[in-house]
Amino acid sequence: MKPDNTPSRRISVAPMMDWTDRHCRMFHRQISRHTWLYTEMVTTGALLHGDVPRHLDFNDEEHPVALQLGGSEPADLAKSAKLGEQWGYDEVNLNCGCPSERVQKGAFGACLMSEASLVADCVKAMRDAVQIDVTVKHRIGIDDITSYDFVRDFVGTVADAGCNTFIAHARNAILKGLSPKENREIPPLRYEFAHQLKKDFPGLEIIINGGFKTVEEIDAHLLHVDGVMIGREAYHNPFMMTSFDARYYGDTAVPKTRAEVLHAMIPYIQSQLEKHGKSEKGGGLKLNSITRHMLGLMAGLPNARAFRQTLSDSKKLALGDPDLLLQALARMQPIAA
């Protein structure tokens, strides 16, 4: 269970493959102290047969942070969840929403929604193995199944296994014929399904995900559900999160300006380069592996393009100098807070 002093999941940033790695999460943490952060999906196979530290290592400053797992074998998920707990994650989340063909071949992700009893077994096995929260992220339907009854029955079955938190991406997942990107855009959003889940299961924590870009949209949905998870907007326009701590968590501390966020990342980058080595070729840490997550910081401001160009300059990146952030900042002067 989540410790009493851990912030609620009122606002969270979605797990996003190739994006929400530990460098991205560390950057987001400079903007919001309390927003929940999620890892990219990590498969059970990667943990049980691969490099565990590479997949699970994270920075203490990232808390509260959740590990999202991909898998469908209860025993493997239990072992993986235990690893997540041992490494210090605050939550383990089971992916029942990813529609990619690669994930389907592994018999997990969104296709698990058609096997609610198996998901229940997976949740029970994980809950038996760990003390931290076990949650499920899912779609509202798959393929041409558009009835609310489908997602209601899925949630009911999994809840009976002890899951108390459900994150509903309010679109169907089309398992054949659409790419993951198209699955985030083409199936219509049906927010009312998530709202109805909260009405039908008032004792559960229901979090809604899908297409949110403004705090006004977030506010409107928080009238119906317990939390809102934002995705692409948090990545492309991360400074939107600057008001979250005060607005949703009552934190009266003055948030960092964009410039302060950049300055805060410099010692982190320096420490990572020293720990892993500077390299743009072969081994070591590539500076771009951190700076690429910061390209949207100046979104909407004059000279934002010049800022992005500086942080993306291959010759400058090859030098491995974190002062590149200051060079990019200089292109923004005078900078808005």
UniProtKB/TrEMBL annotation:
Active site: 98
Keyword Oxidoreductase appears in the UniProt entry: yes
PROSITE patterns reported in the protein's UniProt record: UPF0034
Protein's name according to its UniProt entry: tRNA-dihydrouridine(20/20a) synthase
Required cofactor names: FMN
Name of encoding gene: dusA
InterPro entries: Aldolase_TIM (IPR013785), DUS-like_FMN-bd (IPR035587), DUS_fam (IPR001269), DusA (IPR004653), tRNA_hU_synthase_CS (IPR018517)
Catalytic activity from the UniProt record: 5,6-dihydrouridine(20a) in tRNA + NADP(+) = uridine(20a) in tRNA + NADPH + H(+); 5,6-dihydrouridine(20a) in tRNA + NAD(+) = uridine(20a) in tRNA + NADH + H(+); 5,6-dihydrouridine(20) in tRNA + NAD(+) = uridine(20) in tRNA + NADH + H(+); 5,6-dihydrouridine(20) in tRNA + NADP(+) = uridine(20) in tRNA + NADPH + H(+)
Domain DUS-like FMN-binding, chain residue ranges per copy: 13-318
Site annotation Interacts with tRNA: residues: 95, 181, 184, 305, 308
NCBIfam families in alphabetical order: PRK11815.1, yjbN
A Pfam family it matches: Dus
Enzymatic class: oxidoreductase
GO molecular function list: flavin adenine dinucleotide binding; FMN binding; tRNA binding; tRNA-dihydrouridine20 synthase activity; tRNA-dihydrouridine20a synthase activity
Protein family per UniProt: Belongs to the Dus family. DusA subfamily.
